[in-house]
Write a structure and sequence with these properties.
Layout (H helix, E strand, L loop, with lengths): L1 H17 L1 H9 L3 H26 L10 H15 L5 H13 L5 H26 L10 H22 L1 H12 L4 H15 L5 H28 L6 H16 L9 H10 L6 H18 L1 H10 L20
Helix pairs in contact: 1-12, 1-13, 2-13, 3-4, 3-6, 3-10, 3-13, 4-5, 4-14, 5-6, 6-7, 6-9, 6-10, 6-11, 7-8, 7-11, 8-9, 10-11, 10-13, 11-12, 12-13
Length: about 325
Amino acid sequence: MLRVAVAAGLTLVMLRKSDPAEVWRVSIGARLPDLAIAVALVLVDRALMAYRWLVLLRPLASAAHVTFWPVMRIFFVSTFVGTFLPASVGGDAVRAYALARHDVPGAAAVASVFMDRMLGVLSVLLLGVAGLLFARDLATHPAVAAALIAALATCVVTAFVVFSQRATDFASRLLRLSPSRTVERMGNSIVAAVRSYARSHAELINVLAGSVGVQILRIVQAYFLGRALGIEASLATYFAFVPAILLVMLLPVTVNGLGTSQWAFVTLFARVGVPKPASFALSVLFVALGIVGNLPGAFLYVKGGVKQKAGQVPSQTPPTLGGI
């Protein structure tokens, strides 16, 4: 509830500072062709995100039998359901639960989702560092610096868990402190499943490359949203600012980046002379675009819900990228 309150409060503060009437005027004047390009790009990035998860399942012997269509379906349904849950971890939990219904052990399902999420964080971090080449002084901004440090720490801890036996032993000792033997066994199983990626260098590089591609698509989406609103900032500006904004949105202080995204867009784009109403409208469209990307999952959810089991595959041909 505290994070919801912070998200609502921060959004309202930024809206008041941006002049609500002017924000509305800028928003309703958005150009449809540029909006359409952004929507098309978000559907492509969702398909790429589903593909990278499929690649992560291949190194897990207990999950390698799951085929393309069930993975795509689970991914899109979980992103839709996650829209209504309090954080991105909610959608991840749905994804792991749905995968477990396809005869995949729970530990393997959780490990695949965890690695997918962590490689996504690493890709944002890499582009955030690259963005500093365009705006080096951003590294000294308190919020951006905190986001960079938090993302770096998360990635370093994950790397230790995957590649270090000492980290595995330490995790096992911590789990022995749990009063529940079930929690201890499940925790050790998850750690072992995550550790299995230590030998899957090609798959990890493949997924990281796909994750970087997703983040580049998100930057280009923001660029076309900005064009739709009449913002004349260069593409290089978006490559400098959007990764930093994504890092700030990852900070666990609000719900799904609401509030922090509005603050970050308004604050950073003001550095290049973008008026507050336009940058606030851009932040809202950027968040809304993510919801649009979840809509294919709404159709699949209506058709089969979350609990569709293995073997319950629709008879029609799976949708292509252009048809999602």
